[in-house]
Amino acid sequence: MTKMMKAIVWDGGQWPAGLTLREFPRPTVRPGWVLVKNMAAGICGSDLHYLDGQTRSFIPDSNLPAVLGHENAGVVAEVPPGVTHLKPGDRVAVEPLHGCLELGRLPICAPCAAGQYHICERGLTHVGIPLVEMLPGGYGEYSIVHESRLFKIPDEVSYEAAALIDVLAVGVHALAVGQSGPGDSVTVLGSGVIGIDLIQCLKAWGVTKIYATAKYGFQGDAAREAGADEVILLQKDVDVVEEVRRLTNGRGVDAVYEGVGGRTDVINQAVKMCRPGGRVIMTGIFDGERPVDLLTMLFQEVHILSSNSYSTTGLKRDYQIAVDLLASGRVRHDFVVTHRYPLTQWRDAIETAFDKKGSGCLRSVMFHDS
């Protein structure tokens, strides 16, 4: 008989009708794959884009119904034979990305073989994002995760903080791409959770001067707490490019880290606030084509670099670097998790995440009963 679990199940429809809390088949262990009892799940902006219909077309109907939630942390519940570095009761953060090696797809594609599984040629399978196949995410009681995608977390790191290691790893990878460090001046566009963790990573890497933009006042406050030296609030009478130029005495910054995406035209702004020879590092997911001032790029030799998710930097996984940053206290998530809800209040949790302006929400997190 199939074991069942409680889960918030998405049928592909728009919020709120498309989600229901109900019984859903509980995943089972298989060789190399570990059963995790989820303890906390962050509600990511990409989840909201699926639910409001913006990116619904990305999801094949064959992968529905689905259990979302790719920002997860929990406890190992069951381990299959052959897995020796994990045991039931271990506290773990879940890396949601799975490529050729984990899925047993042969021959392994060239990026996966090189440790760059985030750009897998066959497409990634995510826990909690049903793009290629459906692996139940943190909106349910249990997830099945490959052993290589589980990272032990110390007792002093809360499940809520550990659930957001996914976001922190995005920042770690962006810095590996952007190569910023001591002596550099940097602008971070956007002070949502990605922007806040980018700021914390830049600070940990010793970047000298950090400017940040923020849509709302509460985001600006968080950016300052994260380590931003100056915050530019986005207002109708403020020219962000001119403000960055003013703060840098007309020179521009060495690098701009973009953490907004959506329907915005921030890449054009980013190019114009760079110094000659500067760098723009993209981390946001944009909705359709966006204009770029190619002449400014050419004449100023500004380089646009894309940073997609995370994978391996040198010989170390970006996710492990993120775990270490959080465990050491060099990065904090206590002020990033602004709202906490039990799973039974899931509608309130998601509504809060949608209503950022009204709720002052950086990240809304749902927690499961222990």
Task: Tell me about this structure.
- The protein is of the alpha/beta class and 370 residues long.
- It has two domains: 4-164 and 333-367, Alpha-Beta Complex (Quinone Oxidoreductase, Chain A, domain 1), CATH 3.90.180.10; 171-306, Rossmann fold.
- The chain is built from 13 helices and 19 strands.
- It has helices at residues 45-51, 100-103, 110-113, 159-163, 165-178, 193-204, 217-226, 240-247, 266-272, 294-300, 318-328, 346-354, 356-359; strands at residues 4-10, 19-25, 33-42, 71-78, 91-94, 97-98, 125-126, 142-146, 150-152, 185-189, 209-214, 230-233, 253-258, 274-282, 303-306, 312-313, 316-317, 337-342, 363-367.
- Strands 3, 4, 5, 8, 9, 18 and 19 form a seven-stranded mixed beta sheet that branches.
- The two termini are 24 Å apart.
The domain count comes to: 2
Helix count from the secondary structure assignment: 13
CATH class division of the largest domain = Alpha Beta
CATH topology of the largest domain: Quinone Oxidoreductase, Chain A, domain 1
Shape: globular
Defining key terms:
single chain, 370 residues, alpha/beta, Quinone Oxidoreductase, Chain A, domain 1, Rossmann fold, 7-stranded mixed beta sheet, 13 helices, 19 strands, 28% helix
Compact summary:
This protein has about 375 residues and is an alpha/beta fold. The chain has 13 helices and 19 strands.
List the helices and strands and how they pair.
Blueprint: E1 4-10, E2 19-25, E3 33-42, H1 45-51, E4 71-78, E5 91-94, E6 97-98, H2 100-103, H3 110-113, E7 125-126, E8 142-146, E9 150-152, H4 159-163, H5 165-178, E10 185-189, H6 193-204, E11 209-214, H7 217-226, E12 230-233, H8 240-247, E13 253-258, H9 266-272, E14 274-282, H10 294-300, E15 303-306, E16 312-313, E17 316-317, H11 318-328, E18 337-342, H12 346-354, H13 356-359, E19 363-367
Parallel strand pairs: 10-11, 10-13, 11-12, 13-14, 14-15, 18-19
Antiparallel strand pairs: 1-2, 3-4, 3-8, 3-19, 4-5, 5-9, 6-7, 16-17
Helix pairs in contact: 5-6, 5-11, 6-7
